[in-house]
Specification:
With about 425 residues, the chain is α/β, with parallel strands linked by helices. Helices cover about 30% and strands about 25% of the residues. A four-stranded mixed sheet has the order 22-23-1-24. A four-stranded mixed sheet has the order 2-15-17-16. Bound molecules: shikimate-3-phosphate.
Amino acid sequence: MQDSYTSLPIQTIAPVLSQLPGDKSVSHRAILLGALAEGTSEFQGFLNSDDCFSTIAAMRSLGASVTSVGSALQVEGLGLSGLRAPTQPIDCGNAGTLCRLLAGILVHVSGNSILVGDASLSKRPMQRILTPLAQMGAQITANAGCLPLTIVGSELRGIDYALPIPSAQLKSCLLLAGLAANGETRLISPGTSRDHTERLLQSMQCNLTISGTSIRLRGKQKLLPVTLSIPSDFSSAAFWMILAAGLKQPLHLNAVGVNPTRIGLLTLLEKMGVSVTLRNHRQYGLEPVADLIIHPSQALRGITVGAQEVAHAIDEIPIFCILAAVATGKTRITGAEELAVKESNRLEAMVTGLQQLGIVCHVFPDGLEIEGGQLQGGEVNSLGDHRIAMAFLIAGCLAKNSVTVHGCQPILTSYPNFIQDAEKIGLSLIEGR
Ligand code: S3P
């Protein structure tokens, strides 16, 4: 992949896109939980992206055997107590999900482990996991709440913990620690967050008691291996949904994961005047899947988006901002302070990029405001963030003149075939500026 691409304005797109990439969140969990199961798990539809490669390397360094051939993944699990401490620091690369979930495993792997990451991950907050893990008896030292983390595996006890934020990474970290702890772990979240960990644990015959946003997990439960397909990633599909909505063209996207904790973007689209139909509902294990049909809209109107809506569309806000930029009227997003601590400060990155393209917008500590208008052409920097890079390549399709995006390499962390899929659907991309 080149580091800069120029995206030209387009009028029409292909009406159907199939074979979208596998879900990144589920792919990470397939490796991590597969390695903790007692026996060999097989997955189809695995996402071969840089973030997931970091997870494969991490689990191999703990002694698990993980093989991926095309989109088939095989993980030979060693059980809850079969992993051994790595001999080298584990490099989590750009992957926050890997880092936070793996910490929940390493706290009970006997011996010393060190977690490091790239420049972006090294700046991201880890205190959210350190506080509750310490209450469970974990021994971790960090660098002012950030990486590197040095972990000494210990005997853990279950805790009662009220999460301060509705974070799936935090919740999953504590579930993975709780799995090996003595006694019960009881978590309550201030709102819903993606529940792929809970679903995969249940597929592996782990007993969880879930009531609203509360979860109870008894420690020391065995996980049984599974054979499952991984749904396509709704967050990757979102780029094409916004493109279709912005061009007011119909689009069918086949076999996309529609886990209810992930599809908040559909509500935002509906409020803006775009209708999306879900057809052919089915299940991949405990994960719901459907085909999506985006219907051509007449007018797009600016909307207000609050904290609970943000939580269900946490990774889709950057691409949603592109639609807001071409809608009529103002869009205001609040309760989105978590976006400031993602792979980049996504609030700043979107506002800077949109201003570069002639859109009037403002950033606030917990959100942003966008005056819908006409995207002009220009040059934008992704700030090293995959979702920002893809969002602005879509902006180029909807703009008056071409948009050059610098910093496209990180797209490989989540959507390695983005450029191929973009060309399939009809984007006009030129390498370089
Ligand atoms: C993820 C959870 C979310 C999301 C991230 C993936 C996961 O992060 O933004 O891309 O797989 O658990 P938070 O838990 O920080 O909200």
